User: Fold these one by one.
Assistant:
Number 1:
Amino acid sequence: MGVRVVATLLSVGVAAATAAATVAAWDAGPDATTGGSGGGRCPTGRAAPSWAPNRCYVACPPRAVRTDPSTCVHTIRWRGNTHLWVANGAVTLLARSTSPAARAAAAALNGTACRDAWESGMWGEDLLGRADNPLDGDRRGTHFFNARGVRYDGRKTSVVTYTYLWKSTDNSALKEMATLVSRLGSLIDPSVETCKTLGAALHYVTDMMPFHSSGYSAFSSPPLLHAVAEYYVPTIQAAHPPVGGWSSTSGPGRGAGVEAAFVAASVESNKLAPALISAFADGDGDDSCTMTPDAPVVYRGYCFLGDPAVDREVGRALALGYDTTATWLAELWRTKAMT
């Protein structure tokens, strides 16, 4: 008998929702070798719940608790903000740097008034009218940019965003970023308006993660994995904090300018896409889930919750994101505030 895994979703900024996952591999039956009487000594991979201490059931997934013979309740926090998490990681690296441009950028972004403004500007780029929308020709592809010319599945492509109903677009995150940068005021003691515009530009810089740099959209296979994975990452991102400080001499995109730093972020992130998507979509187990983190998003596929391979690949992508975002900010300050 399969276990019904109910994911209790605690959302930030949206109403709480629930999702159910039918997982064939998580058999809820009693331990066959003991006839169901575990005596408090369950074999590896099985556990006795508090309400039935003498029965051994197959252990629930990580961070889940069995509430009856066929149900595990898994509590996770959806809808965190990975854009902000990555940007804060970048600012942390810059603050630890010995580069004058890096430290100046960190000081400006950590100023109370500026921080409030840039966080607001960053958030606003995912709201109605600014979010990427495949049904809107003006917004389709605006949050994607593939500078490497290689898709998530390893095939070469000339499409720099993604294809929807066999159509691509001239829009791109690179163009959005460049337009916003052109509107910036002085970065020396930046105004609130400049900080807000900077935050909007930072949104597209922090979009340069593996899905967005390889054309892996919500319509790619398996459908809606992109959306659900982005809901899930905030639940594990705290396990991957920024390490060390930013170096002005070692790493991609240094010293080449703002646009080149953005392009380098896309290229390096693109290289991580196959392993990350494989971890989310394939895994090593046979578990199959249905997740509904936020209607109308419904994902059916490999149950990646708690998979160590997913955690590892997300950690790699985040570490790169901290570094490339820090590089973009340092280049912005070096070219526009330090000359």
Number 2:
Amino acid sequence: MRDIARQFKRHFDQTWRRLSPQAKGPIAEYLRRCPGTAYLCFRMDHDDQAPFGRCAYAPDRTAVTFLAPYFSLTSPDEVRVAVIAHELTHIYRRGTGEWTPDGEVEEAATRAKALDWGFDAPSFRDAEHMAGWNEVLGEWQAAHRDRFGKELESRWLGRVG
């Protein structure tokens, strides 16, 4: 997981450098009020959506979970950066008061804002790519279950909520 953590840090730093000062300000201010921790997860098991990243909020802290194998198995770098940018955009929207609990509206607005900032949408192009991803992900998880199988999203989010 250390190699994946190093890759994640490199991509997070790359994402942060690309953000404008106008985007960084509300993110940084929100995280000063509600400090955040990023968790790399073996599996995203909080619900049946299985996203590549997710934000969770408590009154005094923030958790951002990311699917660890995504940062090991995907390329090019831009798809990894897109997921990080997407989650940072949710935090930006919290910081500016634009965030909404309506999931569909929030996702659409977050994607639009991240696109405005110059980041790609964090998704696969079509069902064929998604099916290929699910197969590769399953193989990775089977090969790494003994070492990382306890690093579940529900474990980390249980500490926030």
Number 3:
Amino acid sequence: MSDALAAAEAQLTKLETELSTAAAHLRDCKAHLRNREIPRYAAHLLATQGHVLNAQNILNELAIAHASRSIPNPEFNP
């Protein structure tokens, strides 16, 4: 596997972890909201957003890396 592919795979693992953790925080949010524990709900909601932002940053890095290597196909340009 090339270095670029290995790096992309590592980033995907980080992305998976961030999104899984965000989902876990959302489950906690629901439970705290049902129990009317608003401060705890809000804390987990903010944590969710933090993990989503981290995931977005990873996706941005992957997109930038792809753009640096991608060559447009002239057949698709009118």
Number 4:
Amino acid sequence: MDRKKKIRILVGAQIVSALTWAVVIVGCSHQLEGTGGYEQIFNILIVGASTHFLLISSLIAELLPGGKKDNPPKVV
């Protein structure tokens, strides 16, 4: 599989993932509104979504030209 196709797949996965997390966060927020656990659960969901976003972004960065795989660190 060529690099451009891999990038398209990862970008598509990131978009689907972002939409999934958005639906989960909004759904949980709606269900927990007015309860004592709203803020705690909301913070956990935000941390999970942010972590997932960073992981997928790092995968995309490795596949882009000039990424980590193209320029390995040089040992002095």
